[in-house]
Amino acid sequence: MELEILDALLKYLKDTNHNTFQHIKSDVKNKSAFLKEIDDKTLYSALLKLVKDDYVYEDFQKMGTLSGNLYNISFEGLSFIAEGGYVSRKERNQSQDKKLNDIAIVQSFQQKWIHRLTWIIGLGTLVAGVYYLIEILKFFGVLKAC
User: Are 73 and 98 members of one domain?
Assistant: First the structure.
């Protein structure tokens, strides 16, 4: 749910000219059915997260007696939302994690078979060594022919 809030807010900031939190807060309720259900504290936290991640930049502006922070989407934010945003990145990461997990399972399986094959080859070599030792001992007459 949190990632969807971030994506929806980033998409909203891409398409709006409102840049103060008060304007964003009131306008987002009219534009996004999803963000309408989000309380102001969560919306502000999401905005600060986008600032922290460098997808939104924050400017302080003082005009006469009014002052406040202005929030605008950055180029990185535009690029990020065009790539699918937070939800898409999470899905890509989960897909990569699954692939890495599958590779680890295959490697574990192969490692077990290599271990078993090494034991089989070692046992075969031991049997062959004993056989040829007996043949050598027969050749030199240490063992009588059976």
Answer: no
In a domain, 62, yes or no: yes
pTM exceeding the 0.85 threshold for the entire prediction: no
pLDDT at 106: 97
Rounded Cα distance, 91 and 93, in Å? 5
Q: Can you list the residues of the chain whose pLDDT is less than 70?
A: 62-67, 145-146
Tell me, yes or no, whether 143 and 105 share the same domain. yes
Residue 78 and residue 100 in one domain: no
Give residue 63's pLDDT: 61
**By residue range, what is the domain housing residue 15?**
2-83
Assigned domain for 89 exists? no
